[in-house]
């Protein structure tokens, strides 16, 4: 079907054909959704050819394969991205224009595949894009959740969670692969049996329940290279070799249980970000996709190789945070129980195969499974964990004789829990953080003991983002401008070329062009906001944006308190010097995270009041964008003037939104946290607005105490006023209770937690000052243009292509395919 060159006539024909064969409609009476499906299926025909060729090449060349194991892949829409990566976007747009169809409207019909929460899931998606683009053989391995990240509705200012039925209309891009289905077993007991013939002990799982894991493959299209990799996500089906109407009660119960297990296991993505809840179903999900993926990977290896002890030469496993770290024990199980290796051999293979990435230092994010639960659900795997722990503890004692403190701090099994990170570090051949500062904190604080014991394992891989989605697709005007200025479009695969823009930062004509594009993008977003929020915003005001998951450490609360402070000033002094400002928020709160939800309500209440107060003449607007997700994020980044990256220093491992803003020409207003530090390294402190405590200062307070927010409240009358407004009904229709918890948390803390744990009051003044500097800088039109352009020009380092190349060079050692 595919011709080397795009054939417009053929493409149009296919779209029309698909409408007929799929829906029995002509173009004229097809719905937008039907047209989307028809276009996507037409595109798939082109992709399939490359997909098959790629897989054939892999078969022939036998490269080492990466398995990127992740509970989350926050992919975002595929249609536009695939068109861009296949260099077909313009031509398909033209073809559709000729049919009287608007490609943008068609793209808008695709549900956002949102099989992820936030940073970690979106990073996985960017990595897949870069792996295919750079020509490395890789599988993403995950779960095909029936419901992805919930859709957020705002009602009366409150967040309402609505199920995300992303598969409702089917998914044109996916391919079911029942031929690769794998059985996954849970529970029961382990019977040991001595095998005279082999002289080995066999471990036999009995009375277990099982599900069939059935993979669905998604094409991951590389940019401009005809390479198509695979995201393999697993669905669950019941194994019922008995009848549901069986008269045998035991069989009947079991059949029903297994049906329920299959249904429940892939039902929904846990919407928690950075917060662990010891839910049994979550552990089931983890083992389910890990076991299926590893069984498939080992089977694939064995098809072409005889020596299982050389497995690590042909595959490597990257564990995306602790969520898939049961991989370590499961690989041991497969190697020993199914492939017949002894412990030492299996351990050697496993420890040369598995590597671990840490994405957070938040204590509440650490996964520690109760031993009870773990051992009941995964009896054989647990035996293996026990043995891994026993040997690891021996090693600790060997290295630190008599130092039981070390054992307590580092053992895998401790205090009735399985500490997943400890197992990953003990077994992994690489342990990496996701930004320089984060890795240093891991080495010197959080994982200090492990670092001292095994320093060779630790390394940093600063995160990155794909410029294909976040510039080419999200900001086509700027993308074209960059190409014109650089005289080449090869920045698409080599973002370091952006530094070539530096020579234009003082050029008045280039400055004007750049800021005109920003204005166009702000108008596009203003239109979206009007349509979705009913709020009119001024595209010439400063668009000051904070979009990310809602979490206390990210300090959206500090941002909105500062807005309240500005509003107080404006009210008292309506003629004060004030550059019009639009504060834009977008954030989902985990469904059970009350304080986060109160913060959303507060933002919306402030928005309500401020936006409707005629006395401030529209100088200040606040917008909460409903249902922040990958698709609207692309527009938001493109339209931002200011990038709010204001986490308490040391808490944000890296951040990746910060890089997307930078790419799109928005300077960072932030703390010296995560990758902000490296952004400042690249652009220079004069092209960012940095404020607040350093990570050392924060950690010092945390370790030694001495922080008293109440004193700040007493001594700073502006802060005092703002905090009092939380409990005097100003933003709560007179209800003093509504924000009482927020107020209390800042001044008094609650049981078990410090007051103002994230140092909002401590950093407030320096934040307000930095905000003042933003305003001054923005008044200087030329200076601002220069600063914005310097950010775009300086973003080269933050391509996920660079990140992936570093993983390949230092950790994975993959073979490049051409
Ligand atoms: C078990 C609950 C849970 C769920 C998600 C714990 C932890 C997570 C993730 C690790 C949270 C996450 O997305 N972390 C983010 O990872 C990004 C990619 O490395 C970083 O840029 C962010 O700073 C980090 O918060």
TrEMBL record:
GO terms for cellular component: cytoplasm. InterPro entries: Glycg_phsphrylas, Glyco_trans_35, Pyridoxal_P_attach_site. It comes from the Bacteria. Transmembrane segments: none annotated. Its EC number is 2.4.1.1. Its cofactor is pyridoxal 5'-phosphate. It is found in: Cytoplasm. The modification N6-(pyridoxal phosphate)lysine is found at residue 660. Keywords: Allosteric enzyme, Carbohydrate metabolism, Cytoplasm, Glycosyltransferase, Pyridoxal phosphate, Transferase. One of its GO terms (molecular function) is glycogen phosphorylase activity. CDD domains: GT35_Glycogen_Phosphorylase (cd04300). Allosteric enzyme that catalyzes the rate-limiting step in glycogen catabolism, the phosphorolytic cleavage of glycogen to produce glucose-1-phosphate, and plays a central role in maintaining cellular and organismal glucose homeostasis. NCBIfam families: P_ylase (TIGR02093). Belongs to the glycogen phosphorylase family. This is Alpha-1,4 glucan phosphorylase.
């Amino acid at each position: 079907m595919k011709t080397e060159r795009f054939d417009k006539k053929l493409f149009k024909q296919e779209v029309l054909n698909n409408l007929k064969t799929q829906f029995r409609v002509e173009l004229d009476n097809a719905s937008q959704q039907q047209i989307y499906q028809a276009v996507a299926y037409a595109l798939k025909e082109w992709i399939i050819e490359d997909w098959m060729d790629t897989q054939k090449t892999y078969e022939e060349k036998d490269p080492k394969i990466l398995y990127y194991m992740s509970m989350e892949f926050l992919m975002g829409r595929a249609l536009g991205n695939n068109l861009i990566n296949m260099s077909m976007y313009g031509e398909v747009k033209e073809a559709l224009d000729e049919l009287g169809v608007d490609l943008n409207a068609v793209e808008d019909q695709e549900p956002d595949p949102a099989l992820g929460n936030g940073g970690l899931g979106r990073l996985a998606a960017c990595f897949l894009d870069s792996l295919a683009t750079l020509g490395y053989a890789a599988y993403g391995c995950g779960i095909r959740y029936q419901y992805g990240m919930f859709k957020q509705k705002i009602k009366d200012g409150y967040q309402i969670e609505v199920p995300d039925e992303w598969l409702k209309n089917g998914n044109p891009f996916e391919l079911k692969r029942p031929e690769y289905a794998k059985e996954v077993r849970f529970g029961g007991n382990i019977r040991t049996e001595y095998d005279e013939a082999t002289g080995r002990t066999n471990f036999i799982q009995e009375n277990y329940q099982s599900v069939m894991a059935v993979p669905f493959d998604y094409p991951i299209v590389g940019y401009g290279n005809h390479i198509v990799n695979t995201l393999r996500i697993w669905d669950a089906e019941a194994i019922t070799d008995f009848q549901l109407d069986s008269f045998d009660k035991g069989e009947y119960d079991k059949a029903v249980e297994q049906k329920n297990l299959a249904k429940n296991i892939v039902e929904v993505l846990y919407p928690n970000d950075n917060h662990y809840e010891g839910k049994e179903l979550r552990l089931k999900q983890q083992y389910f996709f890990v076991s299926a993926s590893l069984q498939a990977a080992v089977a694939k290896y064995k098809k072409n190789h005889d020596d299982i002890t050389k497995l690590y030469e042909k595959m490597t496993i990257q564990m995306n945070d602790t969520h898939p770290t049961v991989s370590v024990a499961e690989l041991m199980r497969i190697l020993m129980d199914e492939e017949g290796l002894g412990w030492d051999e299996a351990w050697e293979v496993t420890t040369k195969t598995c590597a671990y990435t840490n994405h957070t230092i938040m204590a509440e994010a650490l996964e520690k499974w109760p031993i009870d639960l773990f051992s009941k659900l995964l009896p054989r795997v647990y035996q293996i964990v026990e043995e891994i722990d026993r040997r690891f503890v021996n090693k600790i004692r060997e290295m630190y004789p008599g130092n039981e403190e070390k054992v307590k701090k580092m053992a895998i099994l401790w205090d009735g829990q399985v500490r997943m990170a400890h197992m990953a570090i003990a077994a992994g051949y690489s342990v990496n953080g996701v930004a320089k500062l984060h890795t240093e904190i891991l080495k010197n604080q959080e994982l200090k003991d492990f670092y001292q014991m095994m320093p060779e394992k630790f390394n940093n891989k600063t995160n990155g983002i794909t410029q294909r989605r976040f510039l080419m697709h999200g900001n086509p005007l700027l993308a074209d401008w960059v190409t014109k200025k650089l005289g080449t479009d090869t920045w698409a695969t080599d973002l370091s070329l952006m530094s070539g823009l530096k020579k234009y930062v003082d050029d008045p004509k280039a400055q004007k062009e750049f800021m005109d594009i920003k204005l166009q993008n702000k108008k596009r977003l203003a239109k979206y906001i009007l349509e979705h929020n009913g709020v009119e915003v001024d595209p010439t005001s400063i668009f000051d944006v904070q979009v990310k998951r809602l979490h206390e450490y990210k300090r959206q609360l500090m941002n909105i308190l500062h807005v309240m402070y500005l509003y107080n000033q404006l009210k008292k002094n309506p003629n004060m010097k004030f550059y019009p400002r639009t504060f834009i928020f977008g954030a989902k709160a985990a469904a059970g995270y009350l304080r986060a939800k109160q913060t959303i309500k507060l933002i919306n209440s402030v928005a309500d009041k401020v936006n409707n107060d005629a006395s401030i003449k529209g100088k200040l607007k606040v917008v909460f964008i409903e249902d922040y997700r990958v698709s609207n994020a692309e527009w938001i980044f493109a339209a931002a003037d200011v990038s709010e990256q204001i986490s308490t220093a040391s808490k944000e491992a890296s951040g990746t939104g910060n890089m997307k803003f930078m790419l799109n020409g928005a300077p960072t207003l932030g703390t010296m946290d995560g990758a902000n530090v490296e952004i400042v390294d690249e652009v220079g402190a004069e092209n960012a607005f940095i404020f607040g405590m350093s990570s050392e200062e924060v950690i010092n307070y945390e370790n030694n105490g001495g922080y008293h927010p109440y004193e700040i409240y007493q001594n700073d009358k502006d802060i005092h006023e703002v905090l009092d407004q939380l409990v005097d009904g100003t933003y709560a229709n007179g209800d003093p209770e509504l924000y009482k918890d927020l107020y209390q948390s800042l001044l008094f803390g609650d049981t078990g937690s410090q007051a103002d744990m994230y140092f909002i009051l401590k950093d407030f003044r320096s934040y307000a000052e930095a905000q003042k500097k933003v305003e001054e800088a923005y008044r200087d039109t030329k200076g601002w243009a220069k600063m914005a352009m310097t950010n775009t020009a300086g973003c080269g380092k933050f391509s996920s292509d660079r990140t992936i190349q570093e993983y390949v060079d230092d950790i994975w050692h993959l073979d490049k395919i051409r």
